[in-house]
Amino acid sequence: MLLRATFTPIFTAIPYKSKIPAASLSISNAFLNNPLSVRENSSLNANATNQNPLLPPTSAYVHLPFCRKRCHYCDFPIVALGSSLSQTEDDDPRIANYVQLLCREIEATKVASNNNPPLETVFFGGGTPSLVPPRLIWSILEALRSKFGVCPDVEMSIEMDPGTFDTRKTRELLDLGVNRVSLGVQAFQKELLMACGRAHGIDEVYEAIDIISSCGLKNWSMDLISSLPHQTPEMWQESLKRTVESKPTHVSVYDLQVYTRGVPPAF
């Protein structure tokens, strides 16, 4: 099956009131020459995430690893689909096959009992989850509902990049229950976006903000990166100003740290 030999789906069920587990087992298995089967991988996930069987999961993180291209600073496990991929692409077999395997992993995940509380939060991260067609997001949600149940007032978040969605796709995602968007802007300067290898331009940033606003979504966040190469204090001040003007409900700032391969950063 396509992707079977190169990438293992990553799904993590997070126990109630426990620390978020490291996904190192799933991520490392994703790059083995002989990746584990769905059931074997789910057993590893169960050991890593359900250390206390008395604590049922109330949150789920779903990794959707697809991007148009790899940004220069990125070391996440992703699959680069190509910059020519349309934001309305609906038949890419790489995405469809991955989602099929992901749903099988959810189905094979062990649960402590049949009386667990439903999920309170679901987070679709990546990668660029907004590249995944809404009908496939629906398939994942149906698998989660069937296995764990989902609260009626669940907080459902999805990471989206400018240039990978339009008004129609956004409304379809909202209709599925998505009620929070994390928008990966990173910078408001064309030269910085190009320098760090982002697939979108400044015009797509403003278009994405307008789409979110026009769809009436109130709960959304914006991601920015500080300490980018050639980023001046004036550029950073401009990005902060544009961010405030956009009126997101939350802002996440990630400080870029560059270190030599094999030498971890000092904390």
Structure summary:
This protein has 267 residues and is an alpha/beta fold.
The rough form would be described as globular
CATH architecture field: Alpha-Beta Barrel
Class based on secondary structure composition and strand pairing? alpha/beta
Radius of gyration: 19 Å
Unreliably modeled segments: 1-7, 17-34
The CATH topology assignment is TIM Barrel
Q: The biggest beta sheet, please?
A: 7 strands, mixed
Q: Output the number of helix runs.
A: 8
Which strand-content bin applies to the residues? 15-25%
In spatial order, strands of the major sheet run 1-2-5-6-7-8-9
Average pLDDT level? 83
Domain module tally = 1
User: How helical, in percent, are the residues?
Assistant: 25-40%
The termini sit apart by 42 Å
Count of strand segments? 9
Order of helices and strands: EHHEEEHEHEHEHHEHE
Report the top-level CATH class. Answer: Alpha Beta
Describe the structure in your own words:
The protein is of the alpha/beta class. It has a single domain (10-255), classed as TIM Barrel. Helix content is 34%, strand content 21%. The strands form 2 sheets. It has a 7-stranded mixed β-sheet. Helix 5 (167-176) links the parallel strand 6 and strand 7. Helix 2 packs across helix 3. It is globular, with a radius of gyration of 19 Å. It starts with 9 loop residues before the first strand and ends in a 12-residue tail after the last strand. Mean pLDDT is 83; it is low at 1-7 and 17-34.
